[in-house]
Amino acid sequence: MRTRATALVVLLLLLAGCTAPDHRDGPVTLRFQSLAWQQESVTATKDLVKEWNTTHPDVKIEYVQGSWDSVHDQLLTAFEGGEAPDIIHDASDDLADFAHGGYLADLTALLPARLKAGIPRGTWDTATFDNRVYGVPFLQEPRVLIADSARLRAAKVRIPTPEHPWSWPEFREVTRALSGPGRYGVAWPLKEPVSATLNLSLSAGGHLFHRGADGKVTVRFTEADAVVPRTIHDQVTVDHSAPSATLGSGGSDTLPGLFGGRYAMVPLGFSYRQQVAQQAPEGFRWQVLPAPAGADGLTQGVSPQTLSVSADCPHKEEAARFLDFLLRPRNMVRLALGDWMLPTGTEALKDPALHTAEDGWATGTALAGRLRPAPAQSVRGYAEWKDNVATPAYQEYYSGAIGLTELRERLEKDGNLVLARYQR
Amino acid sequence: MRARRTARAGQYAALLGYLLFLAFPLLWLLSTALKPPRELGSLHPTWIPRHPTLANVREAFAEQPLAHAALNSLLVALATAVVAVLIATPAAYALARRRTRLTRAATGWVVVSQAFPFVLVIIPLFLVLKNLRLIDSLAGLVLVYTVWALPFALWMLTGHVRSVPAELEEAAAVDGAGRLRTLVSVTAPLLAPGIAATALFAFVTAWNEFFFALVLLKSPGKQTLPVVLTHFIGAEGMADLGPLAAAAFLATLPSVAVFALVQRRITSGLLAGAVKS
Amino acid sequence: MTAVAEAPPARPGARGPARRQGAGPGAWFLVLPALVPVLVLSVGPLLYGILLAFTDAQSGRTTATRWIGALNFRDLLHDTLFWESFRIGLVWAAGVTVPQFLLALGLALLLDQDLRLRGFARALAIVPWAMPEVVVGIMWRLVYHPDVGVLNETLRDLGLGGGRDWLSGLATALPAVIVVGVWAGLPQTTVALLAGLQNVPRELHEAAAVDGAGAWRRFRAVTWPTLRPVALAITALNLIWNLNSFALVYVLTSGGPGGRTRLPMLFAYEEAFRYGQFGYAAAMGCVLVAVVAVLLAVFLAGRLRGGAET
């Protein structure tokens, strides 16, 4: 962007007067753009900011509400224009590009030892690129099955637990048993088919992206990568135990069908429980089941929510101190409960509130140890591979328009062409 | 007479069809806004809520600063409409009455500029505004919206100017009226429908615009309505449907109200009288 | 200035003393207030955007940008995905613009009639326009919802079968989003045409009616010639806007299923904002501008002819 900047100087000299540097006297003010969405978590975050502001008169935090829907575009523009918020809430899969672009501060030296030790090594990996830490992963959610208890009982299927989950073939059997005319064992909301498939495929040992000896990443679609896609494909097109109509739906779109008895189970992010609890009709009993397990057990990929500091922030140490405050185990629990998600901190995870059977908290918490960084989120060119190659390929495969051979061919052949362009 | 009456009936039927097609989402929004969460999850939704409630409206106002955002939006939209009309009308007049290569190039440019992906314009635009100290200011937003509305304004108004017979102005000139007076007292009134349509366009565009408002405004106190509306939408398209519908329904009303007021102007039929005199 | 003060080129449209009077240097003062903001906030950023097309500009401050000549355009030539999306874009633009114009014309003519509750009907007719785009997208997702959508519900009630997945079906997705596009753009076109209809001299209409001319003849002979400049302007703008729009489709389908609704602008947007390839995206923008310029030239030619006729 350097020549961009110089090219602009000409334009700007024509247009505007000089910019006087900002003089900041008195307390430091930091803008914190939060993406907290559920009402409880907005309240929890705002309360914590207030608490900080009353105890730290020298560093004032200004709460700014952002939105998941538009955060990427907004941040990219703000970064390019040099007007980004100081403290940034985002998700690890969105972070890679900003980190590569040099917009985020390396937090390695800024974060206190307590915070570093409190979050498992594997979780840090989700926000670590080129050995630098660009964000603190603080909330995450496994994908779980939200199930209609009455349907499961009526079909007399074995109820899986984190200790004894269903295998993928068993899952397919169960959904077949749960299906009938106008009723389906499962509904797959696959508006984003790639991340869902890849994250679940880790359970079968499918990593899809492989780093060669030369350090370059290529796509290789192995038998392990085919387990999850084949199950979904067969449920939709062979067994008809899953409807094709929801393949383009978002998670929320499937809830009426779940409540109305059309679908017995829906694979959803853990936080969707809030919507289920809020919208389920009186008398509807539901439970949370672990996603099916494969050769690698219950392992699955996640992209945690993160907190980062802008590279342009003039007061990085103060920002890091605020992060440390915000993410103390007690506070992390408050944020997690507010968003119906899991905290990443080991201390926070021990909180009794996260181990109750109510609303399926215990089931999700039991899965926390099995969460791994989502595959390929740090691979350069992943976004383009996903949009241009993988999304259409998976969509066509799941709807039955193409077979497994063509899926493999497109993911590998077309996919590696895209990746090669980024790794020249 | 009978043929006349059936024709009329046909017209009403067609109009009804149009209105059903165009306005049903507003009714659906209203219906959604009045439903409690449990009813929103129902597999067989009804047009009339079974248990109507105003809880969504209350929640919408409690969760987000809607009233304040609406005020910001209103301010920006009104200012945009006024400024756009004030600068576009004379320009359109000149462009319509003078057909040189230059004016045609200007007209063409204005339109071609609309074809370039605005996502590529937004970053340089951001930098320009930053240097003009117009980031995070409603005035900056008005400026951007005005420029954004100009192509439509210019094209529409040029079309309208062209359909005002130059003979009228000539007649006024013969009567000894100065050029400016001719413009203000003869031409401008004849342009009223076009000006009203243009003002409405600028108003609605500014009222609805999302992306510029998102990236140009930083302070929470300055955000406009569309930006605040997205706060009801969470990750993966999860939406707080009830409050969102309530807020969106209310956000739709001002534009409809403005149009209800302006529509008489758009169809005032001043021209007919003017030609006669 | 002198260039402007020169006598206007002799063409049939330019005549009469008022014309010449309006041609004075004063014309510049009329244009200036519009020109300055356009130059600063539109032309400047735009030229900059076009220059980008000849660089390898990427998002981020870690890599320096270089001039690479026409390399982006060469790459683009071989980018089959882009040309496929280009084809979809043309189908979309034509599929939206044409029905939009015809339906809007019908509605504008109706609203121009002396019907009861006219003001009320006019206000209701602009509802789609009055809704923020995000809301429109969410509304229509609900309408097309496979389980609880109004559309499937209605079809089921009518006994036409149900359970169609409009937005995720490979065959139905594009038509489904086109309907939304027509719906969303209808009011704007209607209002523009309605305003244009006010320029039609009533006397001529009445005279033609007295002469016994049918509705169609009256429309052809009286209404259309006056409406023509406005109609052409709004259609040209609609075509451009439609070619350039993607926000609606983005909310509805994100370009899926299988890339069936991937409009070129959506493509350029993703290239720039998702993959950070500003240079390449700018090249796409330039191609789109070129196409629009050609389409526009055709329209302008039509417009000038229209001007000569009046």
Automatic annotation (TrEMBL), chain A:
UniProt xrefs under InterPro entries: Bact_solute-bd_prot1, SBP
Signal peptide positions on this chain: 1-20
Alphabetized UniProt keyword annotations: Signal
Coiled coil: none
Keyword Signal: yes
Family matches, as Gene3D superfamilies: Periplasmic binding protein-like II
Organism superkingdom: Bacteria
Protein name as annotated: Extracellular solute-binding protein
Source organism per UniProt: Streptomyces pyxinicus
From TrEMBL, chain B:
Main localization of the protein described in the UniProt heading: membrane
Keyword line: Cell membrane, Membrane, Transmembrane, Transmembrane helix, Transport
InterPro entries noted in UniProt: BP-dep_ABC_trans_perm, MetI-like, MetI-like_sf
Compartmental location: Cell membrane
Membrane topology according to the record: Multi-pass membrane protein
Claim: Acetylation is one of the keywords in the record: no
The keyword Membrane appears for this protein: yes
Listed transmembrane segments: 12-30, 74-96, 108-129, 135-157, 190-217, 244-262
Domain ABC transmembrane type-1: start-end pairs: 70-262
Annotated Pfam families: BPD_transp_1
PANTHER family with a match to the protein in the record: INNER MEMBRANE ABC TRANSPORTER PERMEASE PROTEIN YCJP (PTHR32243:SF18), MALTOSE TRANSPORT SYSTEM PERMEASE-RELATED (PTHR32243)
Family: Belongs to the binding-protein-dependent transport system permease family.
Protein name: Carbohydrate ABC transporter permease
Naturally occurring in which organism (per UniProt): Streptomyces pyxinicus
TrEMBL record, chain C:
Keywords annotated in UniProt: Cell membrane, Membrane, Transmembrane, Transmembrane helix, Transport
Segments passing through the bilayer: 27-51, 90-111, 123-143, 166-186, 230-252, 278-301
Record PANTHER family: ABC TRANSPORTER PERMEASE PROTEIN, LACTOSE TRANSPORT SYSTEM PERMEASE PROTEIN LACF
Pfam families for this protein: BPD_transp_1
Protein name (database record): Sugar ABC transporter permease
Domain ABC transmembrane type-1 positions: 86-299
Membrane topology: Multi-pass membrane protein
Organism: Streptomyces pyxinicus
Subcellular compartments: Cell membrane
Family according to the record: Belongs to the binding-protein-dependent transport system permease family.
Location (main, coarse): membrane
